[in-house]
Amino acid sequence: MFLLRFALRNPYAVWAAAIGLCLLGLSVVPRIPTDILPDFRTPVVVSYFSYPGLPTNEMEKSVSSRVERALTLAGRMEHQESRTMPGASLIKIFFQPGTDPSSAMNDIVNLEASDMFHLPPGIEYPFTLRSEPANLPVVLAAIHGEGLSETELYKIGYYAVRNKMGGLQGVQIPHPFGGKFRQMMVYVDPVKLQSLHLSAADVVHALKQANLVMAGGNIKIGSTDYLVHPINTLPGTEDIDNVPITTRDGRTIFIKDVGYTKDDAALQYNIVRVNGKRSVYCPLLREPGENTIAVVDRIYEGIGREIPKMKERGDIPAATKVELVNDQSGYIRSAIRNVQYELGIGGVLVVLVVGLTLRRFKPSLAVLMVIPLSILIGMLGFYFSGNNINVMTLGGIALAIGAVVNASIVVVENIVRHLDMGKNGTDAARDGASEVAPAVLAGTVTTLAVFIPIIFLTGMIRYLFEPMALAAVLTIGASYVVAMTVVPAFCSRLMTKGRKASSQDPQDKPKNQTETSGLINRLLQFSMRFRVPLIAAVVVLVGCSYLLYDRIGTELFPAVDAGTFELRVKTTPGTRLEETEKLVERIEQTIEEVIPENEIRNIISNIGLPVGKGAGFSTVLSPNTGPDTAFLITNLKQAGRTTSSLEYVERLRGVLKERFPQEQFLFVTGGIINATLNKGVPVPINVQVSAGTVAKCRTAAEKVVRKIQDIPGAVDVQIGQALDYPQLDIKVDRDPGLIDGADAARHRRKRRDCAFIECRHRAHDLGGSQNRRRFLYWCSVRKQRNGVAGSAPQSAVIRQHSQRSYHRTSVKRCED
């Protein structure tokens, strides 16, 4: 009643407040972040450890497991997940909802820094970054150009595109995928090394000593203070060739005596193909909490503005083309647009029903103005509570549209009734609204009470439906306030006369009221006359519905045709990168045969996994584990497409299984929605097997796979890890008896440097018995005996053993 009295005493103040809230709501709506799903508010920190060449089992025991134990000291941590591969360890740390992201990041960085002392010597410092449960790029910047080499493409992505796009608000851009990292390569002949009684470690040591960056300070000469610049770096191949390794009997041995230097590229571990051509792409991510659509718009604007400028300045070749592909915002825009369209249809239907029921312009206007007012006030609540606009919040508003006008319809209808009794506008508004105020309040509270149980939900369900409930509650609550303030103020000033004077005779009522009442009376009479048949019909319908219940599938979210799908490929463990690329090329041709050319926008293939230099945070974004794995992203055109992406996936699954029976395929559909709902996991169902040892786990997992494959509807059932990856064990005999006592430790370090660090690169090119023998020569070590340099026999230093080992380990939380 207080609201009503205030509104009738100050109608113009109420109108001014309503207009002010409308304008304020319109101004904040563009500032509210827009995304496909609500922000889960679960801080995630990702750490990447790199030690190229270290096998998976050693990486897991010496790095992943040790770091995970150290990170248990982090405050408010929920759980950890890790993925270990040869030379790389990815650790995801999930924190409890509501944890301050900056505090979580600070804890992880400090704990990792304190644990570095216990990690293997020479390991790179970890790369740590804030992330999200589903850390997916919002768009990919594909770089290509006629006549440009892969080295040039990588340089453009690494220095030009990455530097320019990284400065945009809300954008994160890690290292590029694909291409070749430019590097001075020293190719050494192991036979020449052996003949000169040298090892690879000697070459590495010489290069390190000759290529130094040092501070020279300054020097004062006379009245001038000079900066001293020691030039100790090696600018070109000729300078590197002339680096001395050692001196023997007055003769200096240079690098050119045992090999040669070439301005080349680092060994390639990752290949990217865009529409069948080798290319490079930069993944662009949005920062947590940013507006996805706004971020993508900034990226498009930045690419369109900066690339032509860089061409004009000569920073990049004129043939460079940067194309934005795999745009995730397109589906988000479409989904938001569809929900807005449905919301608009609901509003139009409400307008029609109100107009047909009241059949008066001003009363209908009084009811309909409640809809935009309530929605805009609700948006203000969303803005100040830190929520975003998504399909769930828009669904909550659409759900509340009918309830929004209920209170105003009751109030307006009663005010009109009092006006028809001959009262003036103010009296009719006061009497009409006060009579129904308790009923309107009870109805509103009852509707809002339906959403109370949502606050007791937990996990993913709460994150999804809490924003929807909040949207409905804010909108319905705002509609009650508007119905008890703005509507009476509107009616008291603009509705001053009724259609007919007061009369108790039903014949004297307005025509619309007579027709409506007559229709309701006839329906009631019909229902009372045929009570038994109507009740029987209701019981039969309910019974039939119950029988159909078990035949209706159950799903949190329906299948989504996002217009894109991802195909993950695993071939024979240990397959070389070049062979995997040939396989991917044949798979691309198969996709083009199954899907019409006019419906394919682009096919992006990512083969292998970047490691070491040039990898960085990009490794986190790739599901690949090595040169024998790849993934292909197929983007379809939306316009003119008659077949859904899900149907094409079913066709491809059968064709690929028939043409490539030895390979394993995993289709990932649903785009960003499924990735978010699954917290970054590619499939909704994951079975975790724990049996003590790897061998026991493998046996149990194979049994589980056979059981699940027999379940109807289960597809792409496979073991995620490669358990038969070929591995060549090189055992170095560390018996100090081969080396004179005082130098034992030094020679142990030299063996480690040679066999553990340098061979990891050369081994990439091995194949066949001849290369294996050369590999052993390359790993040979020196010894000192009585001051004379010599080479220990290989049989006394190195033993080799070939075996099969697991290539990746995954430690994840298992949720029921």
Automatic annotation (TrEMBL):
One of its GO terms (cellular component) is plasma membrane. Pfam families: ACR_tran. SUPFAM superfamilies: Multidrug efflux transporter AcrB pore domain, PN1, PN2, PC1 and PC2 subdomains, Multidrug efflux transporter AcrB TolC docking domain, DN and DC subdomains, Multidrug efflux transporter AcrB transmembrane domain. Residues 790-816 are annotated as: Disordered. Keywords: Membrane, Transmembrane, Transmembrane helix. Residues 801-816 have a biased composition (Basic residues). The chain crosses the membrane at residues 12-32, 339-358, 365-385, 391-416, 436-456, 468-491, 530-549. One of its GO terms (molecular function) is xenobiotic transmembrane transporter activity. The keyword Transmembrane applies. This is Cation/multidrug efflux pump. It comes from uncultured gamma proteobacterium HF0770_07M15.
